[in-house]
């Protein structure tokens, strides 16, 4: 009896630290969001480099996520997991030591590489500690935890930054990571595959080359004046070549790291496309909202962080209610309602004004969170219910990978349009101020203040333009709901 009780306690402890690791790796992604102004000032970081704070982490995690299970099978789950935890902690420590934009981004890349391994292996460890009967409903809960980490990270970072500095907010994760490492070392038994696992490295490499080339093109294009730069041509050609080789590889080979059965399932394809758009909207909304509050409207970091809490409350509340929804209700109805709420939230954001208080931000964030909390479990149920059981583990990895790529590409796209629109709006506003139409100040301090005011107005108008892009992104994928088949009973 004592042995059984001890085994159950060990399983609960492992499940807890696996979920804690899942939360940490997702919360650290947007953790600097509320403190961007302080990080930029401390490191002399330009506005376009600030976007790399997020895209470096996301793109790096997208590289290692697909290969995590192979690494665990080849070298052992425990060893790979411990290595990823050590790398994650090292990345946290190096971020606090960074004194230039390059060293800061390099540390974020290391964090992202480790996070890409931690996320799927944490899920695998948690699944092993659960009875088989509870496996079916665990995927949506795990995804909800990831999203909760994303929406709650800025509030934690904002509070710490307001009362201390931006570096201590990264220290917070170090003792928690050490605790996870200790529990895993003591309780997790080593497991390797009986035979050396196979992995389609060519398919993985070509897909990664295509996506990372595209990411680098979007991140670096504005700084290098796009195709006037040889580097941008190289990145564009690398992206086109990688995606071309991947498509040919999928069409001509029977076995590759993405099974053809995934592409034959209409529900899974449509749901994945919607999930990609959801990732495009979620992190991009946060990447726009926090700088708008912090840099344009002048909110302190803790208030900026606190205004992400309503989004988290809406997400968790809607998710818990979805768990009590009657099974006889078609989940496609919840997919429609979830998309409608996300679209409505982005429409509310178009009504932001420089004269507003915090209420519109909190309301739109809550509505968006409620939409996400409703959409996530419903979309997961629709996506996986028609898949063959043997395809579901692979499908889960690809499904979440598309959210990551949606987020990283979304941040890059809104950054590009934000800077372009800010410059064009600044020119348009300034062109209306001439000595022949207005009584303008002539002293240098007054002119500097006027230019500062115009820049703020132009930046705010540009932010509104980016919210329109995010609204359109959700509207574009919303017709895919019409192609979803009614989910079948779980196998």
TrEMBL record:
Its main location: membrane. The keyword Iron-sulfur does not apply. InterPro entries: EmrB-like, MFS, MFS_dom, MFS_trans_sf. It is found in: Cell membrane. It comes from the Bacteria. It is a multi-pass membrane protein. Gene3D superfamilies: MFS general substrate transporter like domains. Pfam families: MFS_1. Keywords: Cell membrane, Membrane, Transmembrane, Transmembrane helix, Transport. Residues 14-490 form the Major facilitator superfamily (MFS) profile domain. The chain crosses the membrane at residues 50-72, 79-97, 109-130, 142-164, 170-189, 201-218, 230-251, 263-283, 303-321, 333-352, 358-379, 400-419, 458-484. This is DHA2 family efflux MFS transporter permease subunit. It comes from Pseudomonas gregormendelii. The lineage of its organism: Bacteria, Pseudomonadati, Pseudomonadota, Gammaproteobacteria, Pseudomonadales.
């Amino acid at each position: 009896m004592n042995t059984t009780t001890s085994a159950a306690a060990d399983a609960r402890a492992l499940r807890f630290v696996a979920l804690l690791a899942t939360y940490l790796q997702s919360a650290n992604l947007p953790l600097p969001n509320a403190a961007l102004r302080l990080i930029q000032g401390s490191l002399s970081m330009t506005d376009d480099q600030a976007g790399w704070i997020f895209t470096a982490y996301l793109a790096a995690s997208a590289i290692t996520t697909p290969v995590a299970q192979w690494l665990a099978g080849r070298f052992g789950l425990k060893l790979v997991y411990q290595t990823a935890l050590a790398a994650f902690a090292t990345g946290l420590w190096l971020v606090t030591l960074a004194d230039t934009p390059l060293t800061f981004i390099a540390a974020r890349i290391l964090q992202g590489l480790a996070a890409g391994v931690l996320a799927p292996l944490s899920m695998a460890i948690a699944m092993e500690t659960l009875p088989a009967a509870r496996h079916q409903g665990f995927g949506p809960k795990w995804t909800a935890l990831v999203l909760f980490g994303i929406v709650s990270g800025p509030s934690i970072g904002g509070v710490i930054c307001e009362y201390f500095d931006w570096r201590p907010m990264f220290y917070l994760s170090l003792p928690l990571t050490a605790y996870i490492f200790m529990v895993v070392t003591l309780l997790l038994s080593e497991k390797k595959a009986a035979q050396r696992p196979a992995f389609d490295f060519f398919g993985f490499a070509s897909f990664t080359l295509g996506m990372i080339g595209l990411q680098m093109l979007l991140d670096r294009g504005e700084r290098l004046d796009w195709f006037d730069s040889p580097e941008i041509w190289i990145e564009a050609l690398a992206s086109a070549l990688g995606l071309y080789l991947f498509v040919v590889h999928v069409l001509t080979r029977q076995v590759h790291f993405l099974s053809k059965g995934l592409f034959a399932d209409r529900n899974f394809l449509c749901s994945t496309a919607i999930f990609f758009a959801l990732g495009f909207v979620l992190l991009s909304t946060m990447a726009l909202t926090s700088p708008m509050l912090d840099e344009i409207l002048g909110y302190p970091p803790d208030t900026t962080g606190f205004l992400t809490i309503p989004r988290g409350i809406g997400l968790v509340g809607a998710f818990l209610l979805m768990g009590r929804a009657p099974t006889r209700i078609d989940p496609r109805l919840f997919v429609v309602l979830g998309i409608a709420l996300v679209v409505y939230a982005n429409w509310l954001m178009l009504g932001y004004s420089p004269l507003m208080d915090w209420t519109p931000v909190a309301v739109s964030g809550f509505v968006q969170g409620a939409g996400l909390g409703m959409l996530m479990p419903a979309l997961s149920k629709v996506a996986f219910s028609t898949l063959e059981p043997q395809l579901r583990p692979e499908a889960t990895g690809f499904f979440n990978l598309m959210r990551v790529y949606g987020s990283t590409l979304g941040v890059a796209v809104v950054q590009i349009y934000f800077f372009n629109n800010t410059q064009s709006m600044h020119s348009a506003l300034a062109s209306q101020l001439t000595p022949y139409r207005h009584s303008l100040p002539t002293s240098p301090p007054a002119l500097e203040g006027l230019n500062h005011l115009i820049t703020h107005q132009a930046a705010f108008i540009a932010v509104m333009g980016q919210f329109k892009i995010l609204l359109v992104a959700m509207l574009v994928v919303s017709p895919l709901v019409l192609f979803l088949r009614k989910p079948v009973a779980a196998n």
